[in-house]
Amino acid sequence: MRLEFCPYNLIFRKPAGTSRGVLTEKITCFLRIFDEADPSHYGIGEAAVFPGLSPEADERYFYKLMELQANIRLGLQTDLSCFPSLQMGLEQAIRDFTAGCEGIYFNSPFIIGDKDITINGLIWMGDYEEMISRIEDKLAAGFKCIKLKIASIDWSKEIGMIEFIRQRYDSDKIEIRVDANGGFTMDNALARLRHLADLDVHSIEQPIKAGNPQLMRFLCDVSPIPIALDEELIGKFTPESKAETLDSIKPAYIVIKPSLEGGFSGAGEWIRLADERNIGWWITSSLESNIGLNALSQWVATLNQKRPQGLGTGALFTNNIPSPIYTDGEKLKYNPDATLDRDVIDKLDWR
């Protein structure tokens, strides 16, 4: 077997405000594996490293990638436990290759168009007017779960955005999730959580920075709204460390990002541990291209989750790879008559 990789720079249609600053582009890396006797048939995957967030987003990344490439050629195993995006990309490529190199990663009614996935409407960070406009667009498109990135502009304006939704729809019509990306402090967290509770906010992701388990446990105990762990899960590579995180903090929910948490196998471990503890969860993408989103969506469809998931179609990017997934309002769907465009993939700079 052989492995080739292709760094690929995704270009945003508009500057995207994230917890790691405003992005105009984002590097990702495609992987493909094949039998050297027939290189035209290959399994494709995406190692969607996220600079500033992925634990392997440093100079070690490409050294490990070259080690993986050499080991696959030699038929040797590679320890990817501390390289979750590479684990995710390799799992995808292997699944695609094993299933016949047709972009089918998981069989379910989803891939024949008989099932869809309910997703949330994500409101990207921006100024007040931009975010209000985006909220209006999502509501008009029929989304019943809106996720707001907060703790980035003036608090009174962020509350104003939530009030804007609640003036139109109560909580049994529109679910509101917020993501603070660690932007609260212990000085303001409780007051802000109470304010959010008054507006019937469903939950808040990562109110304070990751790495403060005792303070996070305190907030989980006293918060009037459920708390979901997000960045807190990153860097927990063993079942023991994952269980310890859940047992010590006791969150209401966890937000699972397979590209940051060990691929399908690592994410599945988080799901198992959460289910054992009656902790809710949902899956979120991590600015993958359509290659990674296609595989991720197919996996999510097998989980039979009714809770809205944090997936999209990669419409943020101008140079995405055409794929079978698309959105219809709040539903993510798969067009069985379409495929990943391998003509485009073939022309990339493979190494």
Describe the protein's topology:
Layout: E1 2-18, E2 21-34, E3 42-47, H1 60-74, H2 84-98, E4 117-118, E5 121-123, H3 128-140, E6 145-149, H4 155-166, E7 175-179, H5 189-198, E8 203-205, H6 213-222, E9 227-229, H7 239-249, E10 253-256, H8 263-276, E11 280-283, H9 290-301, E12 325-328, E13 331-334, H10 342-346
Parallel strand pairs: 5-6, 6-7, 7-8, 8-9, 9-10, 10-11
Antiparallel strand pairs: 1-2, 2-3, 4-13, 12-13
Helix pairs in contact: 2-8, 3-4, 7-8
What are the salient characteristics of this protein?
351 residues, alpha/beta, Enolase-like, domain 1, three-stranded antiparallel β-sheet, 21% strand
Task: Explain what this protein looks like in three dimensions.
It is built from 10 helices and 13 strands. The chain is an alpha/beta fold and 351 residues long. The chain has 2 domains: 2-102 and 342-346, Enolase-like, domain 1 (2-Layer Sandwich), CATH 3.30.390.10; 109-334, Alpha-Beta Barrel (TIM Barrel). The protein has a 7-stranded parallel sheet with strand order 5-6-7-8-9-10-11, covered by helices on one side. Strands 1-2-3 form a 3-stranded antiparallel sheet. A 3-stranded antiparallel sheet has the order 4-13-12, covered by helices on one side.
Q: What gap, in angstroms, lies between the N and C termini?
A: 15 Å
Helical amount: 25-40%
Which CATH class of the largest domain is shown? Alpha Beta
Task: Note poorly predicted spans.
Answer: none
Report the oligomer: single chain
Q: Structural class per helix/strand content?
A: alpha/beta
Give the strand tally: 13
Q: With helices defined by DSSP (H or I, 4 residues minimum), what is the helix count?
A: 10
The largest sheet is: 7 strands, parallel
The secondary-structure element order is EEEHHEEHEHEHEHEHEHEHEEH
Radius of gyration: 20 Å
CATH architecture of the largest domain: Alpha-Beta Barrel
Strand content: 15-25%
Query: Shape from CA axes?
Result: globular
CATH superfamily of the largest domain: Enolase-like C-terminal domain
Count of domain modules: 2
Order of strands, widest sheet: 5-6-7-8-9-10-11
Q: What do the pLDDT scores average to? A: 94
CATH topology group of the largest domain:
TIM Barrel
